[in-house]
Amino acid sequence: MLAQFQNLSINNVGDPFIESNYGVHSRQFEVAVLDWFARLWDIQRDEYWGYITNGGTEGNMHGLLVGRELFPDGVIYASRESHYSVFKAARMYRVECIKIDTMVSGEMNYADFHSKLLQNTGKPAIVNVNIGTTVKGAIDDLDRIIRTLEKCGFQDRFYIHCDGALAGLMIPFIKEAPKVTFKKPIGSISVSGHKFMGCPIPCGVVITRLEHVKVLAMDIEYLSSRDATITGSHNGHTPMFLWYTLNKKGYRGFRKEVQKCLRNAHYLTNRLKAMGVSASLNALSSTVVFERPGDEVFVHKWQLACEGSIAHVVVMPNVGVELLDGFVEDLVIKRSSWNKGKDISVPCVANDIGAGNCFCLHHNKKPRIA
């Protein structure tokens, strides 16, 4: 259906809510997509502003820029396991950025956050909250972060951006998950459109409060419009892809896919552990973390993302049990060859995923071959 538009140069330049003098656009689709996300995150049509970005990085850059403009002397706080785009934005905007320690799960260490806030009480706080960290899929506790800010005396002197690149579109459909909503004192939320939603073109969505974005908006005479985006021109095809997906699947479809991903992630974690592979899975996450394979050819074959001693698999809606079984079987076979017929030496990854998930000899975990 969308193929017929591929020969058009569709440019949603400037503000999605204001017409410009460029007529080949898809603003009506973009606004419909934004309205869908505004309802998901509990903010009224006349209270929000947003646009469809080129990806999660741009969403983070926009959210943190709004925070910087509201609090020019503010300090960015982000956990060490935040996406690298957060630290890139801090460098670009020349804003002091304080890294917060994390727990073994990848979640923010709130005691360290509390301590570092008290060291900078004279400057407002711009806080990046992870709704699913990049490597471990950990979710920072938004409510606890808000309480900590208020307890440390930052009432009305903080801005919170929620980086929900992947899990931001999953947790609204998990009954027991904490709510990420504009009914709480947050400033912005961003998600990716090419991850869980599966858009064939990299893209994302960022939503912020209308009253806040005014600090960025400027009139552009030659466009006969206004602009508060990062890039000015942004893709006019991606709104149509996202609009099509949202209408095809609906809330019920997304809920079903989220449940499938969580179920399959638990299945993969259990299969890995049954074969003696150290592995862990955070609650409310579909990101399975395990010991890094000993062969880069294997890593390249399965396109694994690795960091230090660990790798991860992000279980998405298109991944079935058959593929997961094939991956585990291939890993076990290759793992044996890496050890050249000797007894398998399980690396220690306790510092990365916790002693309870580590099967190395030091932590008294014997491989349980299924």
From TrEMBL:
It comes from Avena sativa (Oat). This is Uncharacterized protein.
